[in-house]
Each structure stands twice: as C-alpha cells, then as structure tokens.
Design goal:
Length: about 220
C-alpha cells in the first residue's frame, strides 16, 4: 500500500509540474489529485510545484476529507476534488487556469462544437456557473456541468477541470480541452461577420461512437 501511495504522489507532482511547463497554470494556481483506495493524494495550497518532494505528500480520506498524511495544508479546492471522487468513478482530477479555456468561460455557456474531439469528453463541454473558489457551491456547479457522462467542463471566470481513470488520461483531456478552446477563439476572431461552423449533434454522436474504439485495445 505504501509503495502505491508514494508512486502515485510522484505522479501527482509530475503532473502538476507539467501543467506549469505547458502554460496551463501560472504560479501555484490550479491543483492535481489522484485516488488510491480510500485516500486522495492532492497538491498542497500555495506551494510552487518545483519545490514539492516525497516528504511533502498530502493525503486525505476520500469519505471525510480528514487529513491523514503530511504537514502541508491541502489545496483550497479540496471540496471540489472530493465531490468529484464521491459522485463519479474518477481516479484522477486535474484543475487548471488555462488561458484559452478561461477566456471562453467569459463568452459562452457551452463551448461550440468546433471539433469532434469534444465527443471524447462526453459531448459538448459546458461552462459551470460561477461560484467562489474552494466552496461547496463551486463543487455543486461543476457536478451539474458534468451531468450526462461528461469528463470535463469549464468554470466561469475561473478555469477548467477534467477527470479520468488515470492522471495521464485526466491531463490529456485538459490539454485537449484547452486546444479546442484555442481553436474556437481563433475561428471566432477570424470569422468577422461570418458564423463559425460547428458540428451537428448527429455528427458528434457518430464521432463519439467512432472514438469509443480508438487506440490500442486494453
């Protein structure tokens, strides 16, 4: 059990550092977590990711949120992470303040379907209603935006969050969502009086069916 916790913590830190390297967060904004049995390993609040090491592991109980390992305080977004683990089958959560995604949240209630990869996130990506960070209200808003099997959503005037079976999957979904937001903003800026062409629900459904068999067999 201990080895699995320590290995997962290493993956959490590596993923958090990757969000900075890829320009998805600035400073200590955003947070990353992963679940190991009944524990949630989560990045601490206010600590630059490049300073984190094995001794900085933060673990809380998934059910109660009680901190059981580590001396650093967990991220202020712990209520969001715990709500996602309780309400979904997720094993990993990635939350960032990615610039293109955050910009989109100020413009629309749902990201227009400019690309079929939206189907890989369960369908058109919704924008969760605004609520103060770190609150149960924000967690509830995100859960509403994820209804219907979505694995990612935008958060109004805040950022984005994705879930996955692994940290790698959750991170890939974050990167994909940020890319789609950038594509839409580019198209919107270039369109002028023209409408940005989007995929129909039928086209999205066919893409979703096709993507369900994409990649190598498990």
């Amino acid at each position: 059990m201990l080895d699995a916790v320590e290995k997962t913590w290493s993956d959490v830190v590596a993923t958090a550092r990757r969000t900075v390297a890829d320009g998805l967060v600035v400073g200590t904004s955003g947070n990353v977590s992963a679940r190991v049995d009944d524990l949630v390993l989560v990045t601490p609040t206010g600590v630059p990711y490049d300073r984190l090491g094995p001794r900085d592991l933060v673990a809380v109980e998934a059910g109660t949120g009680r901190q059981v390992r580590g001396g650093l305080r967990p991220t202020s977004e712990l209520p969001l992470h715990l709500a996602l683990y309780r309400a979904t089958g997720a094993r990993a959560v990635v939350h960032t303040h990615a610039p293109h995604g955050t910009a989109v949240t100020t413009l629309v209630d749902e990201l227009p379907t400019v690309h079929y990869m939206a189907a890989a996130l369960g369908g058109p990506v919704r924008v969760a209603d605004y609520a103060l960070y770190g609150t149960d209200e924000l967690a509830a808003a995100v859960l509403r935006a994820l209804r219907g099997g979505r694995s990612g959503c935008l958060m109004r005037n805040h950022g984005m969050v994705t879930i996955g079976d692994t940290l790698g999957q959750a991170y890939d979904r974050t990167a994909q969502l940020e890319w789609m937001c950038r594509v839409w903003l580019l198209a919107r800026g270039a369109a002028g009086p023209l409408d940005v062409r989007t995929l129909t629900p039928g086209e999205m459904a066919r893409a979703g069916t096709s993507l369900s068999g994409y990649g190598q067999p498990r």
